[in-house]
Amino acid sequence: MPLYRARVLVSLRPSVLDPAGEATRAAAGRLGVSAIQRLRIGKAVEVELEADSLDGARAQLELLSDRLLANPVIENWALEQLEPATAEA
Amino acid sequence: MPLYRARVLVSLRPSVLDPAGEATRAAAGRLGVSAIQRLRIGKAVEVELEADSLDGARAQLELLSDRLLANPVIENWALEQLEPATAEA
């Protein structure tokens, strides 16, 4: 089966506090980078999977993101850069 | 000063084990998504900062990534999608 590659971005919902991001922003100020207006830390999951088609790969990635990668109570997710990976393999 | 927006992707170096990614891959199999060849979990840091120019923003983001966002012993980072944010503000 062909191989597909994708990235799933998981980010905290805007209404959810991000203490790690706030701590990083404070530390950036001490480093001399003080003009940061916003800093939020999310996850970037790089996946390579086999599927019979691009749509099949997308369906599996959506299931994975909904059920495993993101906590829908506090996180959003977005699928990016889904493409065949066989050409480079 | 104009506002810029960017994303810093922080990923584990290829030689570094990713136990969280492996656990996710195993859990995906139990969910019926068993054809995953590779799954690595990194960080995606969304930043908005003020700078006098695009180059100034890039320099600050590079400092931030090198010194604060990534641990260079085990992680790589890449700057993505650096662009002015004022048009939408």
Describe this structure as you would to a colleague.
- Two copies of one chain form a homodimer.
- Chain A has 89 residues and is of the alpha+beta class.
- Chain A has two helices and three strands; from the N terminus they run βαβαβ.
- In chain A, strands 2-1-3 form a three-stranded antiparallel sheet.
Main attributes of the structure:
31% helix; 89 residues; 2 helices; three-stranded antiparallel β-sheet; homodimer; alpha+beta
Secondary structure elements and pairings:
The structure is a homodimer of 89-residue chains.
Chain A: E1 3-12, H1 19-30, E2 36-50, H2 54-69, E3 75-84
Antiparallel strand pairs in A: 1-2, 1-3
Order of helices and strands of chain A: EHEHE
Structure class of chain A: alpha+beta
The residue-averaged pLDDT of chain A reads 92
Give the second-level CATH assignment, the architecture of chain A.
2-Layer Sandwich
What is the count of β-strands of chain A? 3
| Amino- and carboxy-terminal Cα gap of chain A | 13 Å
Examine the coordinates and then state which fold CATH places here, giving the name of the CATH topology of chain A: Mth169, Chain: A
Radius of gyration of chain A, in angstroms, nearest whole number: 17 Å
Strand content of chain A: 35-45%
Assembly type? homodimer
Shape of chain A: elongated
Task: Quickly name the level 1 CATH class of chain A.
Answer: Alpha Beta
Largest sheet of chain A: 3 strands, antiparallel
Number of helices of chain A: 2
Which blocks of ≥5 consecutive residues of chain A have pLDDT under 50? none
State the fourth-level CATH superfamily of chain A: Phosphoribosylformylglycinamidine synthase subunit PurS
